[in-house]
């Protein structure tokens, strides 16, 4: 009955809570599972209380209590004007990080090396946890990256690829880490697809992403981690090469001066 705290026999019967567990706690766990699976990402607005109650076959009272619990725990936040969204810890940190990376090349390299560690872990994890639907989605994003006539969209496709792998990894912690640095990541992706960074290397970058996808599709964790590490290692080398060239151009011509 909808007015009581009961769970439908047809809604995830293997998750029906024990008599000692409150229905609101069960609802909170279901919402956290959606966040973990990447169905709800940082910054995304949740369905309304009524819709959630209908989806989970519980009362709105239980949904309201679950949402309040998750807000208290820091997973959700209220939206001005009504509603709830998944917490994103971006904001002030984004701006500070962007500035640190902009003013010092070593900080940019540090960020790429940190991404190496995180994204190789995520690629490995995706081979273990990705559903077939998530793997197919990664493949579709990869196909879009290789389409001709998508000038100006390569950076968005690149970001979508890394987000798709992140969602396939099934870790809300990792998704929140990406959300924290999403703006600077977006700027990095934009730069990777402009001159002088790309300069005839678009096909090579797509091959890097294809190696990650193929390893995930084959469920080869070691190969996926290596492919992600190699891709970002190449990115790091490009940053260093371009930095050295910029320094060379900025040096005075000592021969001419003499």
Automatic annotation (TrEMBL):
Biased composition regions of type Basic and acidic residues, renumbered to the chain: 1-15
CDD domains: WHTH_GntR
Gene3D superfamilies, per the entry: GntR ligand-binding domain-like, Winged helix-like DNA-binding domain superfamily/Winged helix DNA-binding domain
Molecular function terms from GO: DNA binding; DNA-binding transcription factor activity
Coiled-coil features, chain-numbered ranges: none
Domain HTH gntR-type as annotated: residue spans: 21-89
Role: Transcriptional repressor for the pyruvate dehydrogenase complex genes aceEF and lpd.
Name listed for the protein in its UniProt record: Pyruvate dehydrogenase complex repressor
């Amino acid at each position: 009955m909808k007015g009581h705290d009961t769970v439908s026999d047809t809604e995830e019967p293997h998750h029906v809570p024990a008599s000692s567990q409150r229905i609101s706690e069960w609802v909170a766990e279901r919402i956290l599972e959606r966040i973990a699976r990447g169905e709800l990402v940082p910054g995304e607005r949740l369905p309304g209380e009524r819709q959630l109650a209908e989806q989970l076959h519980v009362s709105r009272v239980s949904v309201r209590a679950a949402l309040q619990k998750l807000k208290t725990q820091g997973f959700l936040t209220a939206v001005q004007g009504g509603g709830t969204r998944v917490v994103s810890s971006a904001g002030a940190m984004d701006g500070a990080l962007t500035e640190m990376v902009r003013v010092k090349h070593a900080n940019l390299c540090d960020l790429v090396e940190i991404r190496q560690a995180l994204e190789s872990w995520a690629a490995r994890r995706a081979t273990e946890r990705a559903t077939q639907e998530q793997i197919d989605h990664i493949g579709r994003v990869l196909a879009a990256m290789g389409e001709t006539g998508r000038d100006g969209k390569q950076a968005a496709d690149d970001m979508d690829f890394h987000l798709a792998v992140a969602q396939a990894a099934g870790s809300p912690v990792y998704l929140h880490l990406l959300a924290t640095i999403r703006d600077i990541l977006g700027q990095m992706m934009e730069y990777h697809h402009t001159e002088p960074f790309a300069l005839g290397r678009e096909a090579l970058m797509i091959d890097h992403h294809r190696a990650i996808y193929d390893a995930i599709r084959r469920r080869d964790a070691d190969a996926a981690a290596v492919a992600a590490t190699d891709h970002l290692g190449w990115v790091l080398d490009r940053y260093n090469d371009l930095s050295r060239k910029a320094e060379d151009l900025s040096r005075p011509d000592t021969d001419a001066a003499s």
